[in-house]
Specification:
The chain has 310 residues and is mostly helical. Helices cover 72% and strands 9% of the residues. The chain has two domains: 204 residues, Cation efflux protein transmembrane domain (Alpha-lytic protease prodomain-like, Up-down Bundle), CATH 1.20.1510; 93 residues, 2-Layer Sandwich (Alpha-Beta Plaits). The protein is built from nine helices and three strands, in the order H-H-H-H-H-H-H-E-E-H-E-H. Helix 2 packs antiparallel against helix 3, helix 5 runs antiparallel to helix 6 and helix 7 crosses helix 8. The longest helix has 32 residues. The relative contact order is 0.13.
C-alpha cells in the first residue's frame, strides 16, 4: 500500500544526512580557507567561495527539510512540502553569486598581477578536500534518490560540483608548479567560475519549474496507464486528471464516473480501492484524491449549470 508521508525513521535518516553535510561543509571551509591564505591562489579562493555557499545553503536546506515534513495545518492545508523547491532555488542563487565573485577575482588577478606560494602544501589540502567531497556528494545523492528528496539531491549535486571544482584547482596548481607560469591559476579559476554558474542556473531552472507545477509527460502517461487499467477493472470512466510533484509528495486528483445504478456507498468503496491501488504504485509518498460523478447525464448537468451561470 502506498504511503502519504515519511516514517519517523526515514525522516531521522534524512536529517542525519543533512547534519553530516553541514559538518563536512564547515570542515571543508576551514581547510580551503587555510590553503588560500597559505598559497594566495585564485583557484583555491574560488573553491573556498563555493564552500561558503555550501555552508549557508545546507543550513537553509536543513531548515527546509524540517519544515517540509511538518503536517498540514489551518494556514497550510496542503502541507509545507513545496519549501523544498524554494530551498533548491535558494541554493542555486547562492551558487550564482559565488560564481560571479570567482569570475571577478580571477579577472582582477589577470590584469593586476599576483603571487603564488607553498603550492605543494596547497595541493595536499585540496586533494584531501576533493576526496571528502566526492564521497559526501555520492552519499547525499544516493540518500536523495532513496527517499525521493529534492533537497538532498540538490545538495549532493552541488557538492559533486564542488568536487569537480577542486579537481580544477588541483590542475591549476599542478600546471603552475610544473611550468612556472602562474597564470594557469586565474585562467582555470575562470573556467571553474563558469562551470559553477552553469550549475546554479540549472538548479534555479529546476526549482522554478517545480514551483510552477510543470507537468512531466512521462509521469503523466504512467498515471494514465494506471487509470486505464483501473477503469477497465472496475468498469468506470475518468477525466479531469491533474497531478503535481509537491516536493516530498506526489499529489493526484481525478474525477471518476460510475454507472447511475451504483449507490454513493458502492461508488465510494470502489473509488477508495482505486486510490489505494494508485498510491501503491509509487515509491515516493503519494496522495490520490478522487471526485465521484455519474456516467449518465454527466455532460447534460454541466451544460445546464454552465448555461444557467451564463
Amino acid at each position: 500500500m502506498g504511503k502519504i508521508t515519511y516514517t519517523v525513521e526515514e525522516r531521522q535518516q534524512m536529517n542525519r544526512a543533512m547534519r553530516i553535510s553541514l559538518f563536512v561543509g564547515f570542515f571543508m571551509l576551514i581547510l580551503k580557507c587555510y590553503a588560500f591564505f597559505l598559497t594566495g591562489s585564485s583557484a583555491i579562493l574560488s573553491d573556498s567561495a563555493e564552500s561558503i555557499v555550501h555552508v549557508f545553503a545546507v543550513g537553509f536546506a536543513a531548515f527546509s527539510m524540517w519544515l517540509s515534513h511538518k503536517p498540514a495545518d489551518e494556514n497550510h492545508t496542503y502541507g509545507h512540502d513545496r519549501i523544498t523547491f524554494f530551498s533548491a532555488g535558494f541554493e542555486g542563487a547562492l551558487i550564482i553569486l559565488a560564481a560571479i565573485f570567482i569570475l571577478y577575482q580571477s579577472i582582477q588577478k589577470i590584469f593586476h598581477g599576483f603571487e603564488l606560494e607553498h603550492l605543494d602544501a596547497g595541493m595536499l589540502f585540496i586533494c584531501v578536500a576533493t576526496i571528502l567531497n566526492g564521497g559526501l556528494g555520492l552519499y547525499l545523492i544516493t540518500q536523495g534518490k532513496r527517499f525521493h528528496s529534492i533537497v538532498l539531491e540538490a545538495d549532493g549535486k552541488h557538492i559533486l560540483t564542488d568536487c569537480v571544482t577542486s579537481l580544477g584547482v588541483l590542475l591549476a596548481l599542478l600546471l603552475s608548479r610544473v611550468t612556472g607560469w602562474i597564470y594557469f591559476d586565474p585562467l582555470i579559476a575562470l573556467l571553474i567560475g563558469l562551470n559553477i554558474l552553469w550549475t546554479g542556473l540549472k538548479l534555479m531552472h529546476h526549482a522554478f519549474h517545480g514551483l510552477m507545477d510543470r507537468s512531466d509527460a512521462t509521469f503523466d502517461q504512467h498515471i494514465r496507464d494506471l487509470l486505464n487499467k483501473a477503469a477497465k477493472k472496475y468498469a468506470v470512466r475518468y477525466h479531469n486528471l491533474r497531478h503535481r510533484n509537491a516536493g516530498n509528495r506526489l499529489m493526484i486528483e481525478v474525477h471518476l464516473q460510475f454507472p447511475n445504478e451504483y449507490s454513493i456507498a458502492q461508488a465510494h468503496e470502489l473509488a477508495t480501492h482505486i486510490e489505494h491501488e494508485m498510491e501503491s504504485c509509487f515509491e515516493k509518498p503519494t496522495e490520490c484524491v478522487t471526485h465521484l460523478e455519474p456516467i449518465d447525464g454527466h455532460d447534460e448537468i454541466h451544460r445546464r449549470l454552465l448555461g444557467h451561470e451564463g
